[in-house]
Design brief:
- The protein is of the alpha/beta class.
- It folds into 2 domains: 9-131, Rossmann fold (3-Layer(aba) Sandwich); 136-228, Alpha Horseshoe (Serine Threonine Protein Phosphatase 5, Tetratricopeptide repeat), CATH 1.25.40.
- It contains 10 helices and 5 strands; from the N terminus they run βαβαβαβαβαααααα.
- It has helices spanning 17-29, 40-49, 66-76, 91-99, 112-134, 138-150, 154-167, 173-184, 188-201, 206-218; strands spanning 9-13, 33-37, 54-58, 81-86, 104-107.
- Strands 2-1-3-4-5 form a 5-stranded parallel beta sheet, sandwiched between helices.
- α9 runs antiparallel to α10.
Length: 236
């Protein structure tokens, strides 16, 4: 199945010129299309003119503050994902903003690579949501999860495996794949637990049996190589 790649446009709403310019320069260098706004009113005006998938929104703004801007944008469009920018003393307020619909927050001061990684992760959520929307049933969720594991997108893979498990709680495949993810992340005890869970559902399920035996023999050696893990492509 093919998922159309969205326009990677970012709106920055911040009254501090240095922050606006630093963010804009870093994001443009990474290939994003960027627009800036100097306050909440300006940001809402630009948002009304053109929808932005990702918005970087400062918590404290002159006039309309960041929380109010967040509310207004959510009233207009529930698809845009908003990252709040907050100072040292306002983490509680940032958490409140996430309850109101913000997807994450960034604390000042921050490094350009931090914001780049966060924006990249947020755009990846759009792609995952699009894949989930196209997926139809247990097998497709499982296959998408395998693809994400091969691409080392482990967070996305876990979300897809949750979807697969919600479709069918009796299949061992999702637990085998969760074991692989935990093993690749260096959490062998949890990986072994997932392999055993898969086998408790189906004692004849070879991928989990192979992974359990291999993991027990290898310990934590070679934990980053996906090739040695049995994803269950032939035995699912």
């Amino acid at each position: 199945m093919g998922v159309k790649k969205m326009n990677e446009k970012v709106l920055i709403i911040d009254d501090e010129k240095n922050i606006r310019m630093t963010l804009k320069k870093s994001l443009q260098k990474a290939g994003y299309e960027v627009e800036t706004a100097i306050n909440g009113e300006d940001g809402l005006e630009k948002f009304n003119e053109e929808k932005f998938p990702v918005i970087l929104l400062d918590m404290k703004l002159p006039g309309i503050d960041g929380i109010e801007v967040l509310r207004k944008i959510n009233d207009l469009d529930h698809q845009s994902k908003i990252i709040m920018i907050t100072g040292y003393g306002s983490v509680d307020t940032a958490i409140e903003a996430m309850k109101l619909g913000a997807v994450d927050y960034l604390r000042k001061p921050f490094k350009p690579e931090e914001i780049l990684q966060l924006v990249k992760e947020v755009f990846a959520r759009f792609e995952l949501e699009a894949k989930e929307a196209e997926a139809d049933g247990f097998e497709e969720y499982l296959n998408l999860a395998k693809s994400e594991i091969n691409n080392r997108n482990f967070k996305e893979a876990v979300e897809l495996l949750k979807k697969a498990t919600s479709e069918n709680t009796e299949k061992p495949g999702p637990f085998n794949l969760l074991g692989i993810i935990y093993e690749l992340q260096g959490n062998q005890p949890r990986a072994m637990k997932m392999y055993r869970t898969a086998l408790s559902l189906d004692p004849t399920y070879r991928p989990a049996d192979n992974n359990l035996q291999r993991a027990g023999e290898m310990g934590m050696e070679n934990k980053t190589d996906i090739e040695d893990r049995n994803l269950g492509d032939e035995d699912e």
